[in-house]
Write a sequence for this structure.
């Protein structure tokens, strides 16, 4: 009787597990299934199945630095002196006031050759891809190429608007089409603030130039001394030696 009872317990425990395996619902790899039979408070047999948790290897995310060798090399921040020399040399070659270009760069990128705006403008003078291609700039992050393209565009705008710097600056920021459409500075807050900021820095730079410029003294002309003479009649005469 005891043997039969034990056999019944084995069938009760093993058959469900075998049935699960035969039906194709085998436990996932890495997991173990165990059937446990216990007696409840009323003396009845209660079966439960436990499944071990699946071990999952931790996910590792590696950061990958993607660089363009040529662009990274050409875009290395140059010494301020060399960039200032570039600005002065390129501006003078295109007959553009160097302090105007300097003021624009300070507002555009604050002399960061790797600057990129939310609109996709790049480099020191913040050239958008279309303008860069238009003026032959292959690498907008190269200070020399960027300044060359930006100054050429500025020169074009100054000629287009007959030397009006305010309109040229507005067109540099918003496009010459917008200036032509509104026949003046477009009513865009960003553009008007840009023209104001560049104009403010330009005025300060010109004032500084005037203060630091060496004033050559005018030559002093020397005159011969005047000699007073009195004749026999007591008349006075004055002549220079």
């Amino acid at each position: 009787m005891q043997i039969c009872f034990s056999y019944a317990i084995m069938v009760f425990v093993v058959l469900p597990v075998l049935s699960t395996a035969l039906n194709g619902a085998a436990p996932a790899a890495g997991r173990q299934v165990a059937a446990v039979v216990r007696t409840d408070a009323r003396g009845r047999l209660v079966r439960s199945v436990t499944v071990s948790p699946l071990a999952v290897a931790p996910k590792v995310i590696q950061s990958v630095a993607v660089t363009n060798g040529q662009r990274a090399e050409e875009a290395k921040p140059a010494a301020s002196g060399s960039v200032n020399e570039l600005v002065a040399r390129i501006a003078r070659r295109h007959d553009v006031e160097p302090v105007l270009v300097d003021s624009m760069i300070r507002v555009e990128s604050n002399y960061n050759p790797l600057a990129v705006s939310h609109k996709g403008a790049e480099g020191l003078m913040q050239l958008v891809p279309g303008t860069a291609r238009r003026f032959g700039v292959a690498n907008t992050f190269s200070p020399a190429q960027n300044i060359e393209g930006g100054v050429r565009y500025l020169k074009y705008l100054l000629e287009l608007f007959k030397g009006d710097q305010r309109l040229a600056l507005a067109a540099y920021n918003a496009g010459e089409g917008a200036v032509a459409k509104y026949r003046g500075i477009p009513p865009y807050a960003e553009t008007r603030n840009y023209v104001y900021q560049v104009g403010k820095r330009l005025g300060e730079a010109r004032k500084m130039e005037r203060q630091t410029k060496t004033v050559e003294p005018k030559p002093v002309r020397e005159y011969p001394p005047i000699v007073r003479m009195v004749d026999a009649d007591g008349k006075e005469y004055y002549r220079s030696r």
Observations:
- Strands lie at 33-39, 45-51, 226-230, 236-240.
- The CA atoms of residues 121 and 127 lie 5 Å apart.
